[in-house]
Amino acid sequence: MNAPDSNTKMPKWLIYGLLAKGVLVVVVVVAVLLYAGIL
Question: Mind telling me which residue stretches traverse the membrane in this protein (predicted)?
Fold first, then answer.
């Protein structure tokens, strides 16, 4: 099931999109905490 075929793997843009979304969430959470004076 883990063939090196590019069609069976997750597309790179999808991986980068998920990473970017995770980073964005972290940045927003940190910004809100800083704004609220918690950190």
Answer: 13-36
Distance CA 21, CA 24 (A): 5
Inter-CA distances, 29 with 5, 15, 16, Å: 37, 21, 20
Q: Where are the domains of the chain?
A: 12-38
How much is the pTM?
0.57
Please, is 34 exposed, middle or buried when counting C-beta atoms within 10 Å of its C-beta (0-12, 13-18, 19+)? Answer: exposed
pLDDT in tens, 15-38: 999 999 999 999 999 999 999 987
